[in-house]
Amino acid sequence: MAKKITIALKRGASCVGCDIAVLNFNEELLTLLSVADIVFAPTIMDVKYDDLRKMPDKSITIGLYHGAVRNSDNAELARIMRAKCQILIAYGACAHLGGIPGLANCTTKQKIFEQVYKKTVSTINPENVFPKEKSHDQAGHALTLPEFYDEVKALDEVVDVDYFVPACPPPPAINLKILAMVKNFVEHGDQLPPKGTVIASERTLCDECLRKKSPKLKVGKFARVHQVEVDPDKCLLEQGILCLGPATRGGCDAVCTKVNMPCRGCMGPTAAVCEQGASMLSAIASLYGLTDRETELTEEQIIKLMSEIPDPLGYFYRYSLPKSELKKVVEDK
Fold first, then answer.
1. How far is CA 27 from CA 62, 185, 201, 287, in A?
2. Which positions ≥6 away from 129 have C-beta within 8 Å?
3. Contact, 182 vs 203, CB < 8 A?
4. What is the tens place of the pLDDT at every residue in 40-90?
5. Cα separation of 199 and 212, whole Å?
6. Which of 25, 116, 296, 298 has the maximal Cβ count within 10 Å?
7. Distance in angstroms (rounded) separating the CA atoms of residues 48 and 91
């Protein structure tokens, strides 16, 4: 058997769900460990950042970085991972597209600090003390905190990335695909995919979903999933439940729609489009029948129709705002 490869896991702005997703290989984790040694994974083993810093450059075969880049600590460790790893994978929706942390691009650093350290009901802060990057304690010792960026970024906006793994978190179907890729690379010398590949399906989620769809879908009004009695076999969109399947990449085995939950878009845009939110808005216009009569509608009518969709920005760009054409909300001054 070929010599084992080495794997490192590092999180940025993350809920740590992607670390748990790796552990959820279950018995297949033993298969992974038969061909690879995990040499750095702060969530699941006792290591320090200096351990990673001291490793020789390119000494780690594959690095899985999950989480968005929210502050200078995230960015520093992303650069260290890039230097130490031969192959760097943006693992999960946050590293891939910015993910849910990326919704912070709807506001600013100052407004976040105001809300958290001043306006929140449970906060008692009469002196309005906000976090500082540099300060001193009463004994004069210097104290430092990471710089909190005004904008959340995806991993490839900070360092060069070799592969992308979408989803929140990556499901077993995708993890098994990665496992097969790694195992065949180690044991048989198989070629890895071209750089920049998104390790998922090229099809939309709708193509994978087993729910029955009418030839021509039409929707009169949208409702939240808890407001209707869901038919377990019928297309969710046809039932008026907002589902991002038409604008979302497949490869997750449609795990959400199988349990009567609509797709939220964590797999990101399909290979055919770069703007997930705009793609879904186009799909909704078609479902409403607006594409045939948009010139007949007044602006007020269009606004009224769109007002039936709760939080369009947070819904259509829940996982992809930092990598969208919008990137962040800009206020007129």
1. 21, 20, 24, 43
2. 117
3. no
4. 999 989 999 999 999 999 999 999 999 999 999 999 999 999 999 999 999
5. 27
6. 25
7. 21
What is the C-alpha separation between 65 and 298, in angstroms, rounded?
A: 47
* Chain centre to alpha carbon of residue 206: 19
Q: How many angstroms separate the CA atoms of 97 and 87, rounded?
A: 19
- Give per-residue pLDDT as tens, 29-51: 888 888 999 999 999 899 999 99
List the one residue out of 268, 271, 272, 273 whose CA is nearest residue 316: 268
Q: Sort residue 286 into left (φ over 0), alpha (ψ -120 to 50) or beta.
A: alpha
> What's the rounded Cα separation, in Å, for the pair 128 and 94?
31
CB-based contacts of 17-20 (< 8 A; 24+ apart in sequence): 17/92, 17/168, 17/169, 18/64, 18/66, 18/67, 18/91, 18/92, 18/94, 18/169, 18/170, 19/43, 19/44, 19/66, 20/169
3-class secondary-structure state, position 210: coil
Q: Give the neighbor-by-neighbor strand order of the sheet with 36-40.
A: 36-40, 5-11, 60-66, 85-91, 163-165
